[in-house]
Amino acid sequence: MNKSLNLPQPIDDYFTADRGDSETVGKCFTDNAVVKDEGNTYNGLAAIKQWKIDSSAKYTYTCVPFACEEKDGITMVTSRVEGNFPGSPVDLRYFFTLEGTKIASLEVIL
């Protein structure tokens, strides 16, 4: 992870957890969080944990955030993602909405 990038703590926790398992990733989200990725929407912790299990089984990847900006309560993080998926490497944009110390929503866009 790019340690010179000053990410809000819940988002920093997410990118650290993303290298681990679905339980660790799930702890970053609120109970009713929503994740949108690859045209799919995952509602709630169980679906988000399954999203992490499925994506980890499908691809091996590394994710390095390199830019962060906040506007209107949404934090956009741009990350270089490299792995064994078509089109690698790519720069993905992660749009986070936070609720307290957790992530309430995340949308991942190319």
Automatic annotation (TrEMBL):
InterPro entries: NTF2-like_dom_sf
Protein name: Polyketide cyclase
UniProt source species: Sulfurospirillum multivorans (Dehalospirillum multivorans)
Lineage per the UniProt record: Bacteria, Pseudomonadati, Campylobacterota, Epsilonproteobacteria, Campylobacterales
